[in-house]
From TrEMBL:
<keyword id="KW-0418">Kinase</keyword>
<dbReference type="GO" id="GO:0005524">
    <property type="term" value="F:ATP binding"/>
</dbReference>
<dbReference type="GO" id="GO:0003924">
    <property type="term" value="F:GTPase activity"/>
</dbReference>
<keyword id="KW-0547">Nucleotide-binding</keyword>
<keyword id="KW-0067">ATP-binding</keyword>
<dbReference type="GO" id="GO:0004781">
    <property type="term" value="F:sulfate adenylyltransferase (ATP) activity"/>
</dbReference>
<protein>
    <recommendedName>
        <fullName>sulfate adenylyltransferase</fullName>
        <ecNumber>2.7.7.4</ecNumber>
    </recommendedName>
</protein>
<feature type="domain" description="Tr-type G">
    <location>
        <begin position="4"/>
        <end position="218"/>
    </location>
</feature>
<dbReference type="GO" id="GO:0016301">
    <property type="term" value="F:kinase activity"/>
</dbReference>
<keyword id="KW-0342">GTP-binding</keyword>
<dbReference type="GO" id="GO:0005525">
    <property type="term" value="F:GTP binding"/>
</dbReference>
<dbReference type="GO" id="GO:0006790">
    <property type="term" value="P:sulfur compound metabolic process"/>
</dbReference>
<keyword id="KW-0808">Transferase</keyword>
<keyword id="KW-0548">Nucleotidyltransferase</keyword>
Length: 424
């Protein structure tokens, strides 16, 4: 359908199981490499008397990116007839989690790579678990290096059975398993005759089958207020509420509600920055609004649209939280919570479960969360804030926790508790 449709996909897996090779091969086989890049890298290998590897393509592209503007994560782009893909290369699961919870590189779907010869490793499990805890539901598992196991269906079936059983335990049902050889491009962009017993789709076909997360324009309107500018026009005090639209669409004349304050008004004008006057704005657009009445609110409130479902307002919620602070997360301490543009003091109320990401054992009687642990817990902010369940609206259902100016944790909201003062 839409020519410009984009999708973010993360690729994860144990080191050396073939992530970079999958990406390099995919870029080459879809004709997405810059002109002459493949030849240049091959030539370079020849000159240095080392065998060519598709993974080197990625290094070459990264070097190029690094010389331009600074980048936080390595990203590769390729397109199919259906859409553009942005592949997020997660160097390690800590970086991956950081990117996901900060929203820097949110993935809508994932490819998880397992080496057929080496089999399932601790990180294969850990990554599957991370994806589930972050709410990434579309997962395809690539059983790679099938050439090293003589394209054996028996080996493949064993890996699939073992990994599917593990994923089922943590409530994850992958969309598909695919036997591939990334080195040779088998079943990546093209189906392969080396694996005649596999009748399913190629990885690329499966990717084109991933669904876009809910169309952001069709979700309820969410505009976290970043700044408020005051000015006078014709002797009147006016205010511009500035920020970026996360979801939904709004037009001049629409009724709006600030959350959590519940103050109501109507959009008088949509202000662009060096842009022509618009009557309507949607997701991703940085903009400002003036209102028909004088409203006093602070930055951090979420501007919502009348007649649509509103965010929760309160401060007690259940979350899947990933902790990366040097000191453990404890109940006695006050932290700063950042959710969209709001800031609030937050405390840990209860730990329902702590998961050891290495062996995935769960502990239910813990008082603190240690570094690199994942916990299901209940948090409470000191003042009411507006937020969504991440299942409904991702951008306003995710938060980070700051201590001493450093991000020490973050997570997604999985359940809201009714606090006092819920808006009628
Ligand atoms: P990453 O650490 O997951 O990014 O792994 P790489 O893509 O760097 O691959 C690690 C090693 O495995 C490299 O030497 C690759 O050439 C090799 N490799 C990757 N895919 C295949 C494959 O399908 N078959 C074989 N024989 N080797 C592969």
């Amino acid at each position: 359908d839409n020519q410009q449709e984009q999708m973010n996909i993360v690729i994860v897996g144990h080191v050396d199981h073939g992530k970079s090779t999958v990406i390099g091969r995919m870029l080459a086989d879809t004709g997405s490499l810059p002109e002459g890049k493949l030849e240049q890298v091959r030539l370079n290998c020849e000159r240095n008397a080392k065998p060519f590897e598709y993974a080197f393509l990625l290094d070459a592209l990264k070097d190029e990116q690094a010389q331009g503007i600074t980048i936080d994560t390595a990203r590769c782009f390729f397109k199919t007839a259906k859409r553009h893909y942005i592949i997020i290369d997660a160097p390690g699961h800590i970086e991956f989690l950081k990117n996901m919870i900060s929203g820097a590189a949110r993935a809508e779907a994932a490819l998880l790579v397992i080496d057929a010869k080496e089999g399932i490793r601790e990180n294969s499990r850990r990554h599957g678990f991370m994806l589930s805890m972050l709410g990434v539901k579309q997962i395809v598992v690539l059983v790679n290096k099938m050439d090293l196991v003589h394209y054996s269906q028996t080996v493949y079936d064993q890996v699939v059975a073992e990994f599917a059983a593990f994923l089922a335990q943590i409530g994850v049902e992958p969309q598909a398993f695919v036997p591939i050889s990334a080195r040779d491009g088998d079943n990546l962009a093209f189906r392969s005759a080396n694996l005649p017993w596999y009748q399913g789709p190629s990885v690329l076909e499966l990717m084109d089958g991933f669904r876009k997360e809910k169309d952001q324009a069709e979700q309820p309107f969410r505009f976290p207020v970043q700044d408020i500018y005051k000015f006078t026009a014709g002797g009147d005090d006016r205010r511009i509420f500035a920020g970026t639209v996360e979801t939904g669409v709004i037009r001049t004349g629409d009724e709006v509600i600030f959350m959590p304050s519940g103050k109501r008004s109507t959009i008088r004008s949509i202000e662009g920055f060096n842009q022509p006057v618009r009557n309507e704005v949607g997701p991703g657009q940085a903009t400002g609004f003036t209102l028909t009445t004088q409203i006093y609110v602070k930055p951090g409130e979420i501007l919502c649209r009348g007649g649509e479902s509103l965010p929760h307002q309160g401060g007690t919620f259940r979350a899947n939280l990933f902790w990366m602070g040097k000191h453990p997360l404890i109940k006695e301490k006050k932290y700063q919570l950042k959710l969209a543009t709001s800031r609030a003091t937050v405390t840990l109320q209860q730990i329902t479960k702590v998961l050891n990401s290495a062996d995935l054992t769960a502990e239910t009687d813990r008082n603190q969360v240690e570094r690199h642990e994942v916990a299901e817990c209940i948090l409470k902010t000191a003042k009411p804030i507006a937020f969504d369940n991440s299942r409904d609206i991702e951008a306003t259902g995710r938060f980070v926790i700051v201590d001493n100016y450093e991000i020490v944790g973050g997570g997604i909201i999985t359940e809201a508790f009714a606090d006092a003062g819920t808006l009628a």
